[in-house]
Design goal:
This protein has a domain of 102 residues: Alpha-Beta Complex (Aldehyde Oxidoreductase, domain 3). The chain starts with a strand and ends with a strand. A hairpin with a 5-residue loop joins strand 9 and strand 10. A 5-stranded antiparallel sheet has the order 7-5-9-10-11. It contains 3 helices and 11 strands. Helix 2 packs antiparallel against helix 3. By secondary structure, it is α+β, with helices and mostly antiparallel strands.
């Protein structure tokens, strides 16, 4: 399964793909591009990734979560390229026989993506400035161009 895509992500399609007849719980996280970050207006984002490494890490996360959360299946997709305000940037779906496992696997999935996967976010501002956001520290910036 490809986890990175330059195409828009359809959360409903990923949810349908994750569902199995024995699952009583489906949990869904959808991350979208917002129009501000840390009090500063944002006009768009660009995501870049080292594809092979990011794909391997996303697959490892999904496999580990399936082992750690009984009966869970985790699917995830992350956009790369230029995204507008309101675009879906990342989707994590977890299915499991029970809701506790589905919720826990979904939450852990997005947290691990943010902490471990080499996907880099470049924020662009209406004034022409931009900043690279550290992928492993959501509130820390690596460099800023003004």
């Amino acid at each position: 399964m490809a986890h990175l895509t330059a195409e828009p992500i359809d959360p409903a399609a990923l949810l349908a793909e994750a569902r199995r007849d024995g699952d009583g719980g489906l949990a869904l996280f959808v991350g979208v591009v917002r129009n501000e970050n840390e009090g500063r207006a944002v006009s768009r984002l660009e995501y870049e990734a080292y594809g092979p490494m990011a794909e391997r890490e996303l697959e490892a996360i999904a496999e580990r979560l399936a082992r750690e959360h009984e009966g869970a299946r985790v699917l995830m997709k992350h956009r790369v390229g230029s995204l507008a305000i309101g675009d879906v940037a990342v989707v994590v779906v977890a299915s499991a026989p029970h809701r506790d496992e589905a919720f826990a696997a979904c939450r852990q999935g997005i947290e691990e993506i943010k902490a471990k996967v080499p996907i880099f976010k470049h924020e662009f501002f209406p004034d022409g400035g931009s900043v690279w956001v550290d992928p492993c520290a959501p509130h820390a910036h690596k460099s800023e161009n003004r």
